[in-house]
Amino acid sequence: MNAQSSTRIRLGVVALGKIPEILPKSIAAHISGYLNLNTDVLPSRELPSYAFKRERLQYDAGIILKHLEQEHLPNYEKIIAVVAVDLFVPIFTHVFGEAKQGGKCGLVSVYRLNDEQDDSAPLPPLLLERAAKVSLHETGHLLNLVHCTDGRCLMHFSGKLADLDGMPLYFCRYCGAYLRDFLKQ
Amino acid sequence: MNEKMSILIVDDERIIRESFFHWFEKSGHMVDTASSGPKALEKLEKLPFELLFVDIKMPGMNGIELLGRVKEEYPDTIVIIMTAYGSIETAVTAMKLGASDYLLKPFKPDQLSLVMEKVFHQHRLASEYHYLKAQLEEKTRFDNIIGQSPPMEDIFKIIPEVAVSESSVLILGETGTGKELVAKAIHAKSRRSNGPFMAINCGAIPDTLLESELFGHQKGAFTGAVNHRKGLLEVVSGGTLFLDEIGEISPKMQVDLLRVLEEKKITRIGERAPIDVDFRLVSATRRDLEKEVAEREFREDFYYRVNVIIIHIPPLRKRREDIPLLAEHFLQKYCHETTKKVDHISRDATAVLTDYDWPGNVRELENALERAVVLSKSRTLGVEDFSFLNPTFSPVSGRRSLREMEKEYIQEIWAECGWNVTKASRILDINRVTLHKMIKRYGLKRPAS
Q: By C-alpha distance, which of B97, B98, B100, B102 is closest to B86?
């Protein structure tokens, strides 16, 4: 992705709750590198506890997004929040991330991205790659992109880790062209 | 990038509707929501939604009732049923009523992707089906046979009546009158319309080859039979076989076909085991078969087997009122094919076309229009654009001399025989050399096209 004049959009990456420090940094570096956006890692914030739903033992992604939109973050047009909890939307059992098309805030959960059961082990590189893919996908939605039918495009919807791993860190030429045009505006 | 669909979400729970809405919006679809069955029906009346996600448990009209109504009123709409409380009975009922899938809420994200893949596939197949069906109807539809003259009106009336029966049909008419079009229309209107329609010109194929074409052969049955081959009588099973120029079939082949028509079985050349076949026979000829039967040149039993119903298509010169209509149709056809801008045919040119005798009938008229459109330099076809038509055969008012009548008759028979001098000389009962001399003497010429 080679966006030349995208310096107007500033994107903040924020951790909600307890998250290994390297994750927001890695996500910010990927977004900055692939989309050429001005990206900052913001101080972490509290995860809103009211988003937790007892009947599902998961956090409602929609409620977290609404909470985030009301937070005071005036210097950033777009926000990507990273959480370590399990997320859901009402129709799905779980989601890796959530963002409204053209919205301000996107959400990425690393809860289901880590195959390693041992929490004390260092973060595997694969987890960072997966988190980067989900973050770029959700950022794509914030920049108005829709899902892509090309299975080798970052904007393709993936519901399973196997699909996510099979997808290269790459926007197809149509989505890439759309992003270039969008960021030029 | 994406296959876009118009989707309606019907669920009484707002958060479910919203969740679906955002997900499908992110996939680029046109999506709307309804909170109840009646509201969904109201929206369907206004917009043709292609896909519905319907929750079963809703107050008032439940999802199963809504499914029934939608499938009754909009059978092409794809419906996916979903519920939080699944049971085998409701799943079976939903599928029986025409639901394409049944989902338990909440579903795994990839489950919805798989359902959407299935929906796209179904949608593509339906679109292809409608497109191909329209193409087929375009090719075979009845109104492809153009005419408003009383004899053509009679033919239009008889085609649907004939189509519903299984009887053999014999279509009589001069060359170029559109016998195959009538055969196709009969097939298209019959219960066999989903089966194949196969046409074979018996006059164009040598007898031995015709046998192999119709009956098929076993590998090695004769020199050159290097593979097994199914015959047309087998391939056309379930459909309609159109035998054009049936009068050209040899007596031996008439016997073989008669047996097939009676027993509904065939045996491939070189094989012993008979195979069941099921086809409807429509045949056509420009010859006077009744006369040939009387002269014992055509088998009587075969003749009565193929002519259960006779349709006679009159030559174009006997329905001159159809000529302007046909000319206009071919003008549009060839303007479209050649992308030439020729708007209309002048009144004088129309009169020339109407007066001409058209020995080659509609086919000759079509060729004439094609030639005129291709060579035309203006937007209107005038008399000069049809100068290639032989003016000696325009109707001569008043009494005609014997010489004129002879000249006209020779031209007519020669055209009927596809400009084959040997065949024409046989009908005229004169020597080939004599016929050649007469053609030269009268300055007769076959049409250039």
A: B102
Q: Does residue B141 sit in helix, strand or coil?
A: coil
ipTM exceeds 0.85: no
Task: Determine phi and psi for B260, rounding to 5 degrees.
Answer: -60, -45
Asked if residue B170 is part of any domain, the answer here is: yes
Residue range A26-44, pLDDT digits in tens: 999 999 999 989 999 999 9
Whether A119 and A128 have beta carbons less than 8 Å apart is answered as no
Mutation target to probe the B interface, by most B beta carbons within 10 A, among A55, A69, A89, A91 is A91
| Each residue's pLDDT tens digit, B298-331 | 899 999 999 899 999 999 999 999 899 899 888 8
Q: Which fold has domain A10-116+124-180?
A: Collagenase (Catalytic Domain) (3.40.390)
Residue burial A125-143, b: 16+ Cβ < 10 Å; e: rest: eebbbbbbbbbbbbbbbbb
Q: Using N-to-C axis directions, what is the helix angle for B251-263 and B207-215, rounded to 10°? A: 10
Q: Is the Cβ–Cβ distance between A173 and A181 less than 8 Å?
A: no
CB-nearest to A91 from B19, B25, B28 is B19
Domain that holds residue B387: 317-395
What is the value of pTM for the model shown? 0.54
For chain A, the domains span 10-116+124-180
